[in-house]
Amino acid sequence: MMSQSRKAVYPFSVETAMQYFTDADYTRTKYAALGAEDVNLKPVEKSGSTVIVSNERSVPVEVPSFAKKFISPMSKVSQKDTYETSGQGYQGNWRIDMKGAPVVASGKISLMPTADGKGCEHEVSADIDVSVPLVGKKIAAALIGDTLDAIEAELAYNKANIPA
């Protein structure tokens, strides 16, 4: 399946964005506002030019009827975002594993200053891999829209809730 992406331009700096992206209270509040339950944050790992942000949470999933035997409508997920410094910003990858289901969502992250230097651009790409014979691609196609909607909601939440 081809990767798809969503982008937001924020009126605040890359440094401000990372300050909030690595803040436990902000992250817990954000995911709760977006419908997650049982948000469990792991300590942020910083090593050289690498920043790793990990969490586990239960999230609502729009599950097509034919996929309900593989995926729960409230699914426990484990997410890991890995950022590497790149020029004045960050490039990286994210991955979400759905516990007890053959589903992995993953993609690339870019957080870079805008050309005018007055904000930053946050782009997130997504792809879904479902390892179920015969119907895996059909399930992935059904889940990619939900995943892109979740990315858009997270970008909008950041834009509305991180002060410039």
TrEMBL record:
Per its record, how is this protein called by name? DUF2505 domain-containing protein
